[in-house]
Amino acid sequence: MESGILHGRRIAVTGGAGFLGRAVVARLAARAGIEPFVPRSRDYDLRREADTRRFVADARPEVVIHLAAVVGGIGANRENPGRYFHDNLLIGTHVVEACRAAGVGKIVCVGTVCSYPKHTAVPFREAELWAGYPEETNAPYGVAKKALLVQLQAYRAQYGLRSAYLLPANLYGPGDHFDPQTSHVIPALVRKCVEASRAGAATVEVWGTGRATREFLYVDDCAEAIVLAAERYDEPEPTNVGTGREISIADLARQIAALAGFAGKLTFDPQKPDGQPRRCLDTSLARERFGWVARTSLEDGLARTIRWYEAQGSSGA
Question: Choosing from 84, 141, 172, 233, which is the catalytic residue?
């Protein structure tokens, strides 16, 4: 599909009511004047094949953007490995099969950086995706999401199903999940630092040693990548989506503390897991294949996220 081809198309966005999904739905409305069909979990349980087929029958989509997933930070992954494997595997399998059976024209799927091998050379290149086993704390989730890529490639070969598969860096931004039991590192640190600043607390605890590195992508930039891929990209190979810049968890925590006005001490708990040692993506293929580059700096994105959380008060949790 080329730029502008989404105008007038029937589009469905699974997970469209979630953190990334809301940004994608807003981008579709602004870019193509489209109000996509968003299946809600109360109406369609995508872990169930019959519900997934019914969703596709009701939506009659020409394009499906598949974002629905069960996700969480390191702690949530450690506590729910079976659920994260089972639910994500079934959701992906059912959505792709229902699209095939209904003759959907194209499906855009979002994978996870957690699928990369634990010790992938930096920057991560798409060709290294199968070079080893993922980091243990995220492996069940990462393997389930990587299986979706295999399914898409198999369905392209046998049935001609057109697709795009993106591998985004860790996402963050306004509207993220700030529940301390399930949140990822940025919302967890934002909540801790904002609340500590308000309370005048002396310390904030950070999981792990602080030495692990991560790459972070602002949610609106990722939404733009997804819409561009829907318009322009139709190849079997996965494509990284990120900034191409890494930061240590320690430096990230210091930056968030400063932006949140927390002047106390950051303490690191080495008894908590660091997760994958390093994460940083080679994003050159996204630029070459469908003309996408990230535009939001980490400092600007963090400032926007902190302002949003502060404006929510306790409801931001």
Answer: 141
